[in-house]
Sequence to fold (389 residues):
Amino acid sequence: MTSHVGRLYALAIAILVFFLTWTAVAARPWATTAQADPRLTALAAREQRVRTESAAVSRIVHQRWAVYQRQLKSRQVQIAAANRAQVLAAAAPSVRVVTLPPLTITRTS
Amino acid sequence: MQRRAFRAMGTEIELFVDTASGDTALVEAEAEFHRLESLLSRFRDTSELSRLNRDGEIDGSPDLVQVTELALQARERTGGRFDPTVHEALVGAGYDRSFELLPAEGGESRAARCGGTVTVCGHHIELEPGFKLDLGGIGKGYAAEQAATVLAAAGPCLVNAGGDVAVRAGAWPVGVQTSTGTLTLELSSGALATSGRDRRRWRRDGRELHHLIDPATGTSADGDLLRVTVVGNDAIEAEIWAKALFLAGAGAAEAEANALGLPCVIVATDGRTTTAGGLQ
Fold:
């Protein structure tokens, strides 16, 4: 090819091919086609699932603990009331008027 | 017989135990009074009761919860004559500080609404806005019972918390003031308490006021009674009914005491002294 114009066309086409090849290589198409390790994927999914389940269990435990605490306190009050009732039942007041000098005096409190 | 006297809850406390080795029990019983005062006093800023009154709600100790529940049950049983929500009425009447610090004369007094809603759920206590609790009387009865339980481990005992008397075993002669002298009751179990207008009095606007608030009027009770002493299963019960019968007035108090079988001594302002409820 001796034509000057022909050589310019050939040079332009060579530069174009060079840049296209550069772009193709820079895009690293082989990297995107590589498959992730299925064991790592499964492990990540399992970790996510365990985290979710752990949060749910923790929430349930907290709820049950709060309910238990409320019931325990309520029960303690009931037991105290029952104990008091039992003491009262066992100790009905016994009183009579006497002519002894008093040991102590009750007055308006 | 051993005796210990001290001041707590704004009044004189006497402890008797019929044993020669009651020193430790006496000290523990006194400590119980101070412990309960630190929880139930409305005059101590740091008490649980003051915190409840300030904040309107609290997760209270078992003692505060129990006394509050007992007071609310008493309000039901007495038709509102015993009411723990008289705090604002007491303050309105001028009883806004420990009685020893209260000026005998003062300016205005005002009535205040009583009968506020108090919600107790487990250990959580919540007050209706605008209402506060006064557990002074019932707190003393409760403390007398708790101290008597402590003392009873050492032997037969009597606790006198400024008129609220609790006994365990033994036979204890207790004087009751009448218009003419002293009537002696021998108490071998149970308790007795006295409520009246003859002490804890002061003047506001030239009018004599006292610490027994009638929840119906929100101010110091008017009536024809000077003092009522009631014998009950325990000091709390006796305290509640002493106040309720005082507010009922002479005729109604006697009839109610007979109907309920509450042994009592009723002293009227005209000097008449009556026994009722089976007390001979």
